[in-house]
Amino acid sequence: xxxxxxxICLTVCILFSSCLTNKDLVYLQNKDGADxxxxxxxxxxxxYKVQVNDILSITVKALDEELVGIFNPVETTNASxxxxxxxxxxxFTVDLHGNIEFPVLGKINVLGFTIDEIEDKVESELLKxxxxxxxxxxxxxxxxxxxxxxxxEVGGTGVYTLFQDRVNIIEALANAGDIALTGxxxxxxxxxxxxxxxxxxxxxxxxxxxxxxxxxxIQPNDIILVKPLKRKSIGAGQTAFQNLTxxxxxxxxxxxxxxxxxxx
Length: 264
Hints:
By secondary structure, this protein is α+β, with helices and mostly antiparallel strands. It has three domains: 2-20 and 234-263, no CATH class; 22-46 and 145-228, Outer membrane lipoprotein wza fold like (Roll), CATH 3.10.560.10; 55-143, wza like fold, CATH 3.30.1950. The chain is built from seven helices and ten strands. The chain has helices spanning 2-17, 22-25, 84-90, 115-129, 169-175, 230-233, 240-263; strands at residues 55-61, 92-93, 99-102, 106-109, 138-143, 146-152, 158-162, 188-194, 197-203, 223-226. Strand 6 (146-152) and strand 7 (158-162) form a beta hairpin. The longest helix has 24 residues, at 240-263. The chain starts with a helix and ends with a helix.
């Protein structure tokens, strides 16, 4: 019987230690007790540099709209309404060599350029090859939505597109149904694409210092992976009540087994 008691005590200790606490669930906690008022929380995101497979929305405006009609497909004007198919077929996709095929100008290399730099580049080439300075053209370049993937312990895994210039990781996760109670908020993985390949980064979303991380703001084509907590693998409950229910079931089985073996 002593062995049964020892086993029961160990089981109870393991299950109660597996209960989720606020430290596991609450985002952006001030763990160091620093003065938040004097703490610069937000990491200023660096300008995004265009990569292969990005889709750009480029519009050209001028005093005489007929002059720029060739550069602005009608369907592109509906891009802001969320017509992703329109963005795919009428936007400018960056090919494997980092080029886009632009009307009249032909191939323009945009790989590694920021949005502002691409605007200047397209405008400069148009003035050089097609327009005169008196045309007073104005070029606008935008990414055709911020596309990212969320998988793991979240409410809804999948590929999402948000039509915003800046999205932080908490907004991105909220859009995917938020992290489940069984998800590890302390070690969220961000798989980011670079010219030389993909790299895996870690961010602790329970620490307020996450807001200063270079991965707090997501980038196009990011993959956000939320790992399960270790306690999920041992089948522990998420609350004390669930653990008590589990313990009661184990005790019932153990007691029944003990008396059955004793009577044999």
